[in-house]
Design brief:
Elements: E1 2-10, E2 13-21, H1 23-27, E3 37-44, E4 49-50, E5 74-75, E6 79-84, E7 90-94, E8 110-117, E9 122-130, E10 156-161, E11 167-171, E12 176-180, E13 191-192, H2 199-205, E14 217-222, E15 228-233, E16 244-251, E17 256-265, E18 272-278, E19 283-289, E20 300-308, E21 311-319, E22 323-324, E23 335-336, E24 342-350, E25 353-359, E26 376-382
Antiparallel strand pairs: 1-2, 3-26, 4-5, 6-7, 7-8, 8-9, 10-11, 11-12, 12-13, 14-15, 15-16, 16-17, 18-19, 19-20, 20-21, 22-23, 24-25, 25-26
């Protein structure tokens, strides 16, 4: 029995109101669907901030779509990875800040604790942890002397949670794999990938960049037995075929790469991936997208990718621009679209249900309205066929 927990913070206490969702039948309103169907919608408003935090956005410029910088607090925005806690709450990774290293030095990197409430269409904010390096495991100078990590230090884009509550996070500035404890403290030195260097690291070390900026570990999957991570790059490496992305195997016991890798081929070299998670030991869900938003959004897809030899074969699972919505969930019409520039989160809720979240690039993305900053939307989709996911990956 899956449960969605609504947490209502009132005064000094937390009231938990539990709504039971009995597997697929509940999500699909008691009916098996013949095509991917919207079954839940909730949104966290763009202007949601961590109360009593710190000023942010002092270096942000451009069209802020109705907001004024700097912001008095840290925005809760830019969801780039998600981990299911199995109790209706989720740990969601915020992006690096405001789009680049130069303007994000006052954005504190953070894992947010959230709970969607589909009955009301809201997302409850339950807390979170800032990411820090108190033990000085990062050998280069950080933005802040207190070693609280910022969007000028790393660009976190993917996340996996371990049984001990620690997090492995995929970064784009290295690209690096980063290991944090449940309180957000770095446990190991950043792990680089041989032969792959982002421009941000090249500028710091003098090495030659082999990857483009913002094309690092956008996807991070965990094997069902918990032994391996699979880190998927968002862009091609110098010398590789155009649109060919490397999926790299990382041994969590040895804390090093095994040297095994597979190739995922984009439909178009100009496309990008948004997330990659495991279905079982050989299959993955991968978000693939174009760079459009609103009226220019065309390709926003989720593929089921299977390892075969040294490549990943893929089959379309969901076209996020063409999702059935017969019950008009969220007040949308009979065909629901997810027309956001960056869609960076997918999680399996059960064998026939997935959840998908966008990255709203606060305050810049305008997928729903050309004049308003996007909210962070959270949707659930019922699938016509079972994923037959490994039970160890389902909470």
């Amino acid at each position: 029995m899956r449960k969605i927990v609504r947490n209502l913070v009132a005064g000094t206490g937390v009231l938990a109101l539990t709504l039971s969702l009995a597997g697929t039948a509940s999500y699909a309103a008691g009916h098996q669907v013949s095509k991917p169907t919207l079954t839940g919608w909730a949104a966290l408003p763009a202007g949601t901030f961590v109360p009593g935090s710190e000023q942010s956005g002092a270096l942000v410029t451009g069209n802020l779509n109705g907001f004024t910088a700097p912001f008095a607090d840290q925005p809760i925005q830019g969801f780039s990875g998600i981990a299911d806690n199995g109790d209706g709450t989720f740990d969601v990774l915020s992006d690096n800040g405001y789009g680049n290293q130069a303007n994000s030095g006052d954005f504190l990197l953070r894992v947010q604790r959230l709970a969607p409430v589909f009955r009301t269409g809201q997302v409850d904010v339950l807390g979170g942890v800032n990411l820090t390096d108190p033990d000085k495991l990062i050998p280069w100078a950080l933005t802040r002397p207190d070693r609280v990590l910022t969007g000028a230090d790393f660009d976190p884009e993917s996340i996996q949670k371990r049984p001990d509550g620690s997090f492995w996070i995929g970064d784009e500035f290295g690209p690096y794999l980063l290991h944090f404890d449940r309180a957000g403290r770095l446990l190991d030195a950043p792990v680089a990938l041989d032969g792959v260097t982002a421009p941000e690291t090249a500028a710091r070390t003098g090495a030659t960049a082999t990857a483009r900026s913002s094309k690092g570990f956008e996807g991070l999957a965990q094997s069902p037995d918990g032994r391996y991570l699979y880190a998927l790059l968002e862009g091609s490496i110098t010398g590789d075929p155009a649109g060919a992305l490397r999926l790299n195997e990382f041994d969590l016991r040895a804390k090093k790469y095994t040297g095994k890798r597979w190739t995922y081929q984009l439909d178009n070299p100009d496309f990008a991936i948004g997330d990659a998670i495991a279905v079982d030991r050989n299959r993955f869900l991968i978000i693939e997208r174009d760079n459009g938003q609103g009226a220019t959004a065309v390709v926003k897809k989720i593929y089921l990718a299977t390892r075969r030899g040294d490549r990943l074969d893929k089959t379309l699972l969901v076209d996020l621009m063409n999702v059935a919505n017969p019950r008009r969930v969220g007040g949308f019409g009979p065909t629901f679209t997810f027309p956001f520039q960056t869609i960076e989160d997918v999680v399996i809720l059960d064998d026939r249900t997935i959840a998908v979240l966008n990255d709203n690039n606060f305050p810049f993305s305008t997928g729903r309205s050309a004049t308003a900053a996007d909210n962070n939307e959270w949707i659930t989709i019922a699938l016509p066929k079972s994923l037959d996911a490994d039970e160890r990956l389902l909470k």
